[in-house]
Each structure stands twice: as structure tokens, then as C-alpha cells.
Amino acid sequence: QVQVVESGGGLVQAGGSLRLSCAASGRTITIYTMGWFRQAPGKEREFVAAVGWSSRYTYYADSVKGRFTISRDNAKHMLYLQMTNLKPEDTAVYYCSASERELEASAVRGTKSYSYWGQGTQVTVSS
Fold first, then answer.
1. From the first residue on, what is the mean pLDDT of each consecutive set of 10 residues in the chain (127 residues)?
2. Please, which residues have CB within 8 angstroms of residue 60's CB and are 6 or more apart in sequence?
């Protein structure tokens, strides 16, 4: 089993920055692709970004491309999401996810592709 725990959320003004972290524990050797998703009130959970095991491949939702950067440190079993130029529409609960497979581009955006999920961290962007 793998456990993932997010941290780093908070309240920030529009145009500001936040860095989310995700700590993985347990059978981390089985983790390959990791990702971030978010869910706003009344909306479905949506893909934000994903990164392959070697960090060679990264994927982003169009809405965050150029503003968010996903990265990972396999030695520390950590996943990060650097968020800049935040907008009110970025307000949501952000979830860390982990897959036991190296996902292809066609699969990284689907919630069903990931086996493990954190409890989420709230990000609120005020206008």
C-alpha cells in the first residue's frame, strides 16, 4: 500500500504563488506516474498536472500551462506543484495522486488511472 499526504495549501491573493507538496510513504517502489487534480465546489475532479517517474515527461491542463510547474524528488518520495500567477478560478481542493504504472499521455488525465489519493489541501485565491 501507498499513502500520499498533501500540504501547502492556503489563502492567497490573485497573482500570488503557492507551492504544494505531496509526501508518499509505504511501498513507494511501486509508484510511477504521479499527478495533481483539483475539485471546486459543485464540480467534478479535474486534471491539473502529471509527471512520469523519471521526470522526462510532464503534462498540464491547458488552464494552468505556463503558470504551474510539477516536479518530483524520487529520493525523498516527494511531489510538488509550484503555482504562480494564481487566479480566483484556481480555487479548489487539490489532490495528489499516484499510479502503479507509467501512464501514457492518453491516460494521465483520467482519475481512474491512479490507484492512490491524498485527502486534499484547500487552495483559495481571492480577487
1. 96 98 93 97 97 96 98 97 98 98 96 97 97
2. 48, 49, 68, 70
